Amino acid sequence: MSWEVASSFAALASAPAVLVTLVAELLLLALRSWVITTRLVLTRQVSLLLDGAVVALGLMFVLLVFLRFVTVG
Amino acid sequence: MRRSASTALGTTGAIAVLGGAALVLWIVAVRHANFARMGPLGLVSVLGKTYFLGLALVVVAFAIELLREQLHEGRLIALTMLLIVFLFGTACVIEPVASLTSSWVHAGYVQYVFAHGKPLENYNAEFSWPGAFSLGAVLISFMGQSNALDLLRWFPLVIELLYLAPLLAIARASGVSRRAQWLGIALFYATNWIYQDYFSPQALNFLFFLVVIALVLTGWSPLQRAREARFDRLRDRLGAWRGAVAMRRLRGEDATTSWTVNQMLGTLAVLALLFLASAVSHQLTPYAIFLGLLACLVSSRLGRPELIGLVFCLAVGWLSLGASNFWFGHLNLVFGSLFQLATSFGSNVSQRVTGSASHRLIVDVRILVTAALFGLALLGAARRAATSRTLELLVAAPFVLFAVQNYGGEGLLRVALFSGPFAALLAASAIFPKRDGPIRPILPDVRFRRHPRVVLAVVAGVVLLSFAVTTTVVRGGNDAYESFSNGELSAVNYVYAHIPPGKHVGVVAPYLPIGQRDVGTLTIFEGIGAGPTVPTFNTMLASMLGARALYVVLNAAQNQWGQIVAGYPPSWQGALEHSLAGAGYRVVARWRTATVLLLATGT
Fold first, then answer.
1. Alpha-carbon span B502 to B519, nearest angstrom
2. Are strands B255-256 and B221-222 parallel, antiparallel or unpaired?
3. DSSP-derived 3-state class of residue A63
4. β-strand pairing of B594-599 with B551-555
5. What pLDDT does B325 receive?
6. Could you report the predicted ipTM of this complex, rounded to two decimals?
7. Domain boundaries, chain A
8. Domain boundaries in chain B?
9. What residues in B contact A73, CB-CB < 8 Å?
């Protein structure tokens, strides 16, 4: 069991996992920037969903980078 | 009316004559400077009185222009450029080849990327952030060259001139008085003794940093609602600081822009491109940009907080993925100095104040110049009224970098560099403070009864001249061992022409124009090792004899370094050459400033 947990941590710390999260976060940041700059009207729910996704993916990215430093470095 | 017009014409003529005379004096000074006679104090030891007379004329012309009712931007730009030529162009003209070994090493990296189409993996930290070297390779290919050597010598002057454009934009958008804007720019150059403008990724990235901050400050301003509030009482001031971390502020809703949607989208695209370029080309600058943007956000000068997330993700993403070769197996290089403030301060300040009396004097004065600039900035922050405290936060933000990373003992230097432009604008506000704005001055106004503008212009001139003269001395203070003659370059080229691949070339310390070729195939052995402390002469001698490098290069710059920094006796290089001769080396080529020794076969 403990081996499986370690294995999954290593998978989370792999370069593809970090890269996918990074690209997703960059896309969401670009989307939010585009929406606000062009003054596109979003419903409150969609706006909250977008903000929540940006924060959640950002935290996930930081966590994965930390795991990568700890497990690989 | 006619009299005031003729006075203005006379003043304009006087400024033109002073500027022209200063330029002539500079040309005379650099033509008469003899590089071969450079002493332990560096560049200043070959500069005559004409240089300082010319510098004084530039400052006098600048002060007279500041004195006028209507400032003339064209003349101020011309005088600022003349000041830049004095401070950053003099060494470029006098020194026969580019100074600083690092600039030659960077040319070697550019040449490697040009020849192989990619950086060398697992080589060193700098090659893990290869963006600037790739740009250099593209540039030399575009110019039809095969290496970057022609770019090295004049690079400091060119990049300092390039800094002027974003600095002008930052000054205009900073909210300080008009006279303080110009004086602030001049003070930044006059206190910039930090030699980070040589051919290097950090010089290019400092330009990126300035352009990013210039775009943000010109793009957004505090919302009118926030402007109208007045912060006279302590309770109001505390309330304003609490507002800095309010959700509304952090969402960028306290900043507004007058730009059109298309202008703003274009600006965001340029900023994203700059973030990407910075993330892949320098270890530290993206984090300085991140902190700078954070300072702008909490002071209502940034309307798009996504930019902060973008630069952070790109910087950390590249560190985690692109630069993994750098931190695999030695993570302590990245996080080892985290919050080790006392140790970082020791490696950044105390350990640098060593060597001969002349070297210690130079280092002490450098610390004093920086301390004086920041002290004056503190006074300016207390004297000025403002719409926001963005400048103060931009000065403070880079200090977080120092708490996180000591950057191989150069952390404080980089903090001073990134804070410099904003500290200079605040320092100028100590002399020309703006007196109206929602944030009231902490100190009361000081008024001169007679000729207030003349008194202030004289004070500005004296401060600027003091800084400019001191920076001339301390900026070139290491040139005795960091600048090189044609003979030293010929010696290195001789070695490159004769050494077989895979063999070692031995030097005592890295003070010669080496590294511009054969990256990855030629190993350079340094007798002093890679430790933070300089070994004694005997330890270094044992190291050199034990290395058995095929070629050994001894030169004037290393000789000066040995005496000025390492404290070796004046005849140390002769003694080393004698010992090497006894260990099987023979002199194969000699110039007036350099000697090449070859290890005889069979020894």
1. 11
2. antiparallel
3. helix
4. antiparallel
5. 82
6. 0.90
7. 2-72
8. 101-152, 155-324+336-475, 484-599
9. 327-329, 331
For residues B557 and B538, the answer to whether their CB atoms sit within 8 Å is: no
Q: Summarize pLDDT for B291-327 with one digit per residue, the tens.
A: 999 999 999 999 999 999 999 999 999 999 998 888 8
pTM assigned to the model: 0.92
Q: Do A26 and B327 touch (CB under 8 A)?
A: no
Interface of B with A in 262-321 (CB under 8 A): 264-265, 268, 272, 304, 306-307, 309-310, 313-314, 316-317, 319-321
Query: Which residue, among B313, B314, B331, B334, would best test binding to A if mutated, counting the most A CBs under 10 Å from its CB?
Result: B313
Q: How far is CA B251 from CA A55, B246, B264, in A?
A: 12, 9, 17
Q: What is the number of helices (H) and of strands (E) in chain A?
A: 3, 0
How far apart, in whole angstroms, are the C-alpha atoms of residue B60 and residue B67?
Answer: 10
Chain B residues in contact with A39 by the CB 8 A cut-off are 261
Q: Which residues pair with B526 in a beta bridge?
A: B507
Residues from chain B that touch A61, judged by Cβ atoms under 8 A, are: 313, 316-317
Distance of CA B479 to the CA centre of its chain: 16
| Facing residue for B268 by CB, picked from A25, A37, A73 | A37
Contacts of A62 in chain B (CB under 8 A): 316
Query: What's the confidence (pLDDT) of residue B234?
Result: 65
